[in-house]
Amino acid sequence: MNPAPAIGAGHESLPTILYLNGVTVSFDGFKALDNLSFYIRAGELRAVIGPNGAGKTTMMDVITGKTRPDAGEVFFDETVDLTKLDEARIANLGIGRKFQKPTVFENHTVFENLELALAGDRRALPALFFRLGPAERARIDAVLATTALAPVQDRAAGSLSHGQKQWLEIGMLLMQDPDLLLVDEPAAGMTDAETEQTARMLREIAASHSVVVVEHDMEFVRDLGCRVTVLHEGSVLAEGSLETVQANPRVVEVYLGR
Amino acid sequence: MAGWRPGFTHLLGDRGGLVLLTVLAAAAVLVPVLNLLVPPTAAFHVPTYLVSLLGKYLCYALLALSVDLVWGFCGILSLGHGAFFALGGYAMGMHLMRQIGTRGVYGHPVLPDFMVFLNWKELPWYWHGFDHFAFAALMVVLVPGLLAFLFGWFAFRSRVTGVYLSIITQAMTFALMLAFFRNNMGFGGNNGLTDFKDLLGFNLQADGTRAALFAASALMLAGGYALCRFVVNSRFGKVLVAIRDAESRARFLGYRVESYKLVVFTLSAVMAGVAGALYVPQVGIINPSEFSPANSIEVVIWVAVGGRGSLHGAVLGAVLVNYLKSYFTGALPDAWLFVLGGLFIAVTLFLPKGIVGTVPALGPGRCWKGIDAATTQLTRLFGGGRTQL
């Protein structure tokens, strides 16, 4: 086992929720992921940083079943082989994903967006006769409160501000109640105040979920205060606390030095 | 609580739909009455040709409704729905052919005229059973439904979307047209099926039968509308719109997109088949030109004109464009295709939401909001509490 760093300590004894080993993905000869290996413990909050083209989004695609790796293994919860499953199965196993560009259902209201994300039966025919019960409405109300969206719950999601859309998408992830959340650049395009609020929201979520955050914004990563993995050219360049990786000369060379 | 309403108030809140259902119910009663009971000399008499013409419009409206369900709510632009309509029509046509019996030109008790003409000695296996109305009715639903299911099974599983899907739906209807043109397919070749005599024992030329077929079309359209409204208001319908707007988001939320598409596509094809089955006895013929790709494209234009994604808009568009077609092909036959093309361009450029989405007076809200406001004022004036619908 790797020596545990100062930050992220306390999770060593917990089971591995996500395990990637030797994952390689090539697009027309270009290796988007090159023998990538790393793992996340249950309950951990982890930031993944790296320059453009480092393979951050491809890594998310592999974990959520959008892209099949050419080689390597991806395990969820130590036993489930994710490379064999499609997106819907993986989502139902308990892996939620937030896209880089906020992706919500623009023509549905905020409330309906959350309702659609609500954990439960996803089959087509039962959906014809589905009725929202009081317990489910209470859950939606709770998430509306967490994401500060209660006042706009009846507005079409398309009419929300950029920041509100990001929060709505995070709220939708919460409705799914996944064990593992993959969050791609949640602070992109946000004001400073919104960025801070988002970091607070994610720390709150990380208290009861495992969360992987991909981010460019160093201030935001500092706000998260968690262990950091640096990707470069499709594999792990460094891992540790933000201070440790920022002091790493190779990291400075490929990323921070620019 | 806002954002949550029990299902039935959705129907009550659906003003455009209520108007449509009222008009259909009134038409189902009034048109037959004005045709059968009002003497031909009276001003309000509806001549029989008009009854059948209106009945034909209603069948087209049901077809448009089925296209709107998949295109307007799930983003599946089918350019081949005419195929399902035609298959339903052929199933009904086969039943009507078997009903002719010995009254055909060749007087053969079992074989339809075209088979005798082709020197066939016995009925092909797939014509068996069509002498029973119930069997034919089952086939009207089953054949288009099964084809749509198989087509969708492969297309949606392979994640064929957008313009590629449109092209293969178009190829499907084109292939069926070529197949049905062949004499040895056993569906009457390019002449199709015609010379029908009666349906369920009623003479198809009689005014009463025509009026009954009209009423049946109106009721079927009303039923189709209510079914579509139920589907799009359910959680299933919300998922459809979610798929239309952000398919991968829906997938990552755990929805099996292909299942939803398959269910709605099959349902829509069944509706189109029923429309075709009602259409054939009213126009008296079904031939392979019903499969022509241009027909399916025309349906899309009806929906676009009326208003994509609003069910009553599809109905309005179908009736309006077909009325224009009847008018122009009579008055200025050479101009019709230009009118149709111009209409499509004009709607795309100036009315992207169609008539229902654009013209306020016809929109689902405005006019009723006006009435609502007026009633509120009135009840306030008279000191009473406002009564809810």
Quick overview of this protein structure:
The complex is a heterodimer of chains A (258) and B (389). By secondary structure, chain A is an alpha/beta fold. Chain A has helices at 56-63, 87-93, 110-117, 124-127, 134-146, 162-176, 192-206, 218-224, 242-247, 249-256; strands spanning 16-27, 30-41, 45-49, 71-76, 80-81, 95-98, 180-184, 210-214, 227-232, 235-240.
Can you tell me the overall shape of chain B? globular
Give the overall form of chain A. Answer: globular
* Total of helices of chain B: 16
What is the mean pLDDT of chain A?
Answer: 86
Write the layout of secondary structure elements.
The complex is a heterodimer of chains A (258) and B (389).
Chain A lengths: L15 E12 L2 E12 L3 E5 L6 H8 L7 E6 L3 E2 L5 H7 L1 E4 L11 H8 L6 H4 L6 H13 L15 H15 L3 E5 L7 H15 L3 E5 L3 H7 L2 E6 L2 E6 L1 H6 L1 H8 L2
Parallel strand pairs in A: 3-8, 3-9, 6-7, 7-8
Antiparallel strand pairs in A: 1-2, 1-4, 4-5, 9-10
Chain B lengths: L6 H7 L1 H22 L11 H27 L6 H20 L12 H5 L15 H25 L4 H20 L11 E2 L3 E2 L2 E2 L3 H27 L1 H11 L1 H6 L4 H27 L1 E2 L6 H14 L4 H21 L4 H15 L3 H5 L7 H16 L8
Antiparallel strand pairs in B: 1-4, 2-3
Helix pairs in contact in B: 2-8, 3-8, 3-11, 3-12, 3-13, 4-6, 4-11, 6-11, 8-9, 8-11, 12-13, 12-14
